[in-house]
């Protein structure tokens, strides 16, 4: 014992005598200034030496990197960073709480090589001083709200390889060099130009491209560029991916484009190109081609297509091609998807017998009269709206459109196992807190999202890069592959820690850096960016300063004897403390539902059900009673003791909330009382189960009704009434709930119809409460459903009630057209606007009208209804009406229509009279999970009272 004490005293003394390696005094002052102006920084930033802080790395006492990706830091002052003159790497990505203007002083970081600010909340202009960072090789400012023009000074960055300014609000023209300024054409070493989803205008300068460049990715889609595609593009022989889709480009596609023999993917759709179809002969590595929705001259199916042996996907919708499709076309060995709809193809379709079994062929709205292989074929074929579907020999197999859901990939093979609280079961059957987010791919060389080969390739590549960098990764899950409204591929990503229940901040920031820096090759996939979801539960840091280690050892030695003496007492006290803590942490622990004593949830009308109650009314949760399922669990139909039919949503293991969160959720939902909002009947918190009990809505979703699944055709009067009901429900959430609720996932699948086709808004799994609507907006990670999502919210991450208005506008367009929001890569807003432009203001809207409604000339108020829908989906949220205004406008249309008198339910002029005595909502500051039983439940975090 004496020797141990001596060692402890020696270590304790040595800390006083030791000379520790401290950070440079100027760097220390700068980092302390940053710490004082930021918040939510890592806990170990309280130590004296910044070289020991998480996210800060030093070389020879100088700060050389700040790596804080995804760590949740918040702040708006960035001027002090400029004092870190030895800084080489700065990665602040996926910190939505970092907001403000990027200061011009950033130009003082002369040694900076990597600047990554992906997924933050920066706004204002990109400073010209960015051009002073002449060592910069990687610049990623995407997914912010930067505005103004692209600084021409970026042309000074001659070592730059990666330039990503996409998903901002940049406007003006593309800068090129002149006598007085630099330009992007000077970036001869650049490999990546990513400038998509901005507001760039003007023509593409011929000077922008030259044979001296080394570009492999040129991505300019979803801007407002005009004029011709420059012929100089064909001189950049290194190009592999070209995206100029969804602009306003016109004229002929330059023939020099065929010189790009290394091209893998070509996107030119949704422009105004004219002239002959481009000849792509010689592009032997071409996988993906999209030329849809242009004004090319009428021609036969191009013969050069049959020479593209690597082709997987051909999109040529609405391109004026005609005649018969050559049978050789279907012999291409890699072919997965062909879309030739809305053309003038005719004659007899012959697909031969050499096609791939996983081929999807969409020939909708052509003039095909017959099909040679009517019975014996195995591809997915769509011939809807062709003359053949009007003949007696036609079959439903190719004259109907089936709805296909993407493979969610893959479930684990673990035996039944439950995880503690909000932990998730990994593929290797361990319970932990995964780091989650979404991968967004600018391009991809395939279209068969069900093919596991592509999934395994991506999964393997990610695991390889993580493990090779020494990260404690157990496994990853990629799920829900989806092509979004911008024709980008998305995968949801879960990354599970190894040997621990959660990641520390260093691991999270390293993962974020590796994903957004993207220094590893990916077969089948183009460039991408990663947007995370805030991490729930950081583990303690594995990094500490030398002083901390010495002090820790000294203190440990000094209490060694006391720990031995009091070990038994400590164990006893800990047992009692753990028991008391467990009772305190469980809000239902002291609550007897029969006596209503203890910490009783403050409910208004919702009833408690025992597990046995719900087990009995669902025949032991029989599959015959199951009416739906999703990521949260399954939904069962049952009848409670009162005889009321209910829908019971049962959470599966791994998706259940903590007790406090579940209590908060039922308290919240019990306070929503409106005839056009699905109501909560009760809940079950018993025997380790969490269940929500809702009123049963018999006629399913509006989407099912419009698609004909329930066998009932909606006439105009019913559609008006449904729109009115849903608008009233949503208006209540926005304007009469206290605090207001933003639904955030309005879509036709979340509007349910009862026996009398009264509409009710459902699914509050993504909702946000706004404690003070006067504050304008809630900044939040983007959530919602593709096709319905407000583009302004998608780009700025600033959520307002007008985001719901946009989604509701999409639902109104669905009511008119009965079409899905995204069809073959074309959004319903664009499609309807094109038809309105063609109509040139006439009242004849038959082209967009659902045929089940008859002629538009007999539909009273249709023009006003369409005008209202298009106002709801205006690009700027400020230009959209409020939901109260939408209710009044639909009410006015109902009064104009004679069918109003036939409605089952009286339409009152005072839309909100019955809501005046409703119970107010209260503000909470906790997480609330999925609370609906709609078709596509989600699990999300909520932020209340912000």
TrEMBL record:
Q: Which GO terms describe its molecular function?
A: ATP binding; protein serine/threonine kinase activity
Q: What is its EC number?
A: 2.7.11.1
Q: Where is the composition biased (Basic and acidic residues)?
A: 904-915
Query: Where are its TM segments located?
Result: 547-573
Q: Membrane topology for this entry?
A: Single-pass type I membrane protein
Q: What are its GO cellular component terms?
A: membrane
Q: What class of enzyme is it?
A: transferase
Q: Which residues bind ATP?
A: 649
| Signal peptide start-end | 1-23
Task: List, alphabetically, the CDD domains matched.
Answer: STKc_IRAK
- Which controlled-vocabulary keywords does the entry list? ATP-binding, Glycoprotein, Kinase, Leucine-rich repeat, Membrane, Nucleotide-binding, Receptor, Repeat, Serine/threonine-protein kinase, Signal, Transferase, Transmembrane, Transmembrane helix
UniProt domain Protein kinase: residue ranges: 621-894
Q: Does the keyword ATP-binding apply?
A: yes
List, alphabetically, the PANTHER family matched.
LEUCINE-RICH REPEAT PROTEIN KINASE FAMILY PROTEIN (PTHR45974:SF242), RECEPTOR-LIKE PROTEIN 55 (PTHR45974)
Q: What is this protein called?
A: non-specific serine/threonine protein kinase
Could you read off the lineage of the organism from its UniProt record?
Answer: Eukaryota, Viridiplantae, Streptophyta, Embryophyta, Tracheophyta
């Amino acid at each position: 014992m004496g020797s141990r004490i001596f060692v402890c005293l020696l270590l304790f003394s040595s800390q006083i005598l030791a000379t520790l390696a401290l950070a440079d005094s100027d760097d220390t002052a700068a980092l302390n200034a940053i710490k004082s102006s930021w918040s939510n920084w890592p806990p170990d930033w309280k130590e004296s030496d910044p070289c020991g802080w998480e996210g800060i790395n030093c070389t020879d006492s100088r700060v050389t990197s700040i790596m804080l990706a995804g760590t949740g830091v918040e702040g708006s002052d960035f001027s002090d960073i400029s004092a870190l003159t030895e800084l080489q790497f700065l990665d602040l990505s996926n910190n939505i709480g970092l907001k403000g203007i990027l200061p011009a002083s950033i130009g003082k970081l002369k040694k900076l090589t990597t600047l990554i600010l992906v997924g933050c909340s920066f706004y204002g202009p990109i400073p010209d001083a960015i051009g002073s960072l002449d060592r910069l090789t990687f610049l990623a400012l995407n997914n912010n709200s930067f505005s103004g023009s692209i600084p021409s000074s970026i042309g000074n960055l001659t070592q730059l390889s990666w330039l990503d300014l996409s998903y901002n609000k940049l406007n003006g023209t593309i800068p090129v060099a002149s006598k007085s300024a630099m330009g992007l054409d000077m970036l001869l070493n650049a490999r990546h130009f990513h400038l998509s989803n901005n507001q760039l205008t003007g023509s593409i300068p011929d000077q922008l491209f030259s044979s001296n460049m080394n570009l492999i990715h040129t991505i300019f889609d979803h801007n407002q560029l005009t004029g011709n595609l420059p012929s100089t593009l064909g001189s950049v022989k290194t190009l592999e991916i070209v995206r100029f889709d969804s602009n306003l480009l016109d004229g002929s596609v330059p023939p020099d484009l065929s010189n790009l023999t290394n091209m893998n993917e070509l996107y030119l759709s949704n422009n105004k190109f004219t002239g002959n179809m481009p000849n792509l002969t010689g592009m032997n590595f071409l996988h993906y081609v999209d030329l849809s929705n242009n004004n090319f001259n009428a021609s036969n199916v191009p013969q050069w297509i049959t020479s593209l042996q690597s082709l997987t996907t051909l999109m040529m919708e609405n391109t004026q091609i005609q005649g018969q499709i050559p049978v050789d076309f279907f012999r291409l060995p890699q072919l997965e998807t062909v879309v030739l709809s809305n053309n003038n193809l005719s004659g007899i379709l012959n697909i031969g017998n050499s096609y791939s079994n996983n081929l999807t062929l969409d020939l909708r709205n052509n003039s095909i009269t017959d099909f040679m292989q009517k019975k014996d074929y195995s591809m997915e074929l769509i011939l809807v709206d062709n003359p053949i579907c009007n003949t007696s020999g036609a079959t439903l197999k190719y004259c109907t459109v089936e709805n296909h859901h993407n493979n969610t990939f893959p479930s684990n093979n673990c035996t039944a196992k439950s995880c503690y609280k909000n932990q998730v079961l990994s593929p290797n059957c361990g319970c932990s807190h995964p780091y989650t987010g979404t991968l967004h791919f600018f391009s991809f060389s395939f279209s068969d999202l069900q093919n596991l080969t592509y999934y395994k390739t991506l999964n393997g590549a990610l695991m390889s890069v993580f493990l090779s960098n020494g990260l404690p990764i157990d496994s990853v899950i990629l799920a829900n592959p989806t092509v979004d409204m911008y024709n980008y591929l998305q995968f949801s990503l879960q990354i599970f820690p190894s040997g621990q229940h959660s990641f520390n901040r260093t691991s999270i920031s390293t993962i974020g850096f590796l994903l957004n820096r993207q220094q590893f090759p990916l077969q089948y996939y183009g460039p991408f960016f990663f947007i995370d979801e805030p991490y729930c539960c950081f583990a303690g840091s594995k990094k500490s300063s030398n002083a901390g280690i010495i002090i820790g050892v000294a203190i440990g030695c000094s209490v060694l004897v006391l720990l031995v003496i009091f070990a038994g007492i400590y164990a006893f006290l800990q047992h009692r403390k753990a028991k008391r803590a467990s009772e305190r942490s469980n809000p239902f622990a002291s609550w007897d539902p029969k006596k209503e004593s203890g910490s009783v949830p403050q409910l208004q009308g919702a009833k408690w059900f025992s597990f046995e109650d719900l087990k009995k009314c669902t025949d032991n949760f029989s599959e015959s009673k199951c009416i739906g399922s999703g990521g949260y669990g399954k939904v069962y139909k049952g009848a409670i003791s009162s005889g009321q039919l209910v829908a019971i949503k049962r959470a599966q293991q791994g998706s259940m909330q903590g007790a406090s969160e579940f209590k908060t959720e039922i308290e919240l939902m019990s306070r929503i009382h409106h005839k056009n909002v699905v109501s909560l009947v009760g809940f079950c918190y018993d025997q380790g189960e969490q269940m929500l009990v809702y009123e049963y809505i018999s006629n399913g979703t509006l989407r099912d009704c419009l698609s004909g699944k329930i066998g009932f055709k909606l006439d105009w009067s019913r559609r008006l009434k449904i729109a009115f009901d849903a608008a009233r429900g949503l208006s209540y959430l926005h304007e009469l709930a206290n605090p207001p609720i933003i639904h955030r996932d309005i879509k036709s699948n979340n509007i349910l119809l009862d026996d009398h086709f009264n509409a009710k808004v459902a699914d509050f799994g993504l909702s946000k409460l706004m404690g003070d609507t006067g504050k304008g907006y809630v900044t939040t990670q983007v959530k919602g459903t593709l096709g319905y999502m407000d583009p302004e919210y998608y780009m700025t991450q600033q959520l307002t009630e007008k985001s719901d208005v946009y989604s509701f506008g999409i639902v109104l367009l669905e009511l008119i057209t009965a079409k899905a929001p995204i069809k073959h890569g074309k959004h319903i807003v664009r499609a309807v606007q094109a038809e309105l432009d063609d109509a040139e203001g006439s009242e004849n809207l038959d082209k967009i009208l659902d045929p089940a409604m008859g002629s538009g000339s007999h539909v009273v108020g249709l023009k006003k209804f369409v005008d209202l829908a298009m106002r709801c989906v205006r690009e700027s949220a400020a230009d959209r009406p409020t939901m109260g205004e939408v209710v009044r406008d639909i009410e006015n249309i109902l009064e104009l229509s004679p069918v109003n008198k036939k409605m089952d339910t009286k339409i009152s002029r005072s839309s909100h009279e019955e809501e005046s005595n409703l119970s107010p909502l209260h503000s909470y500051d906790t997480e609330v999970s999925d609370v609906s039983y709609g078709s596509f439940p989600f699990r999300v975090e909520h932020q209340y009272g912000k």
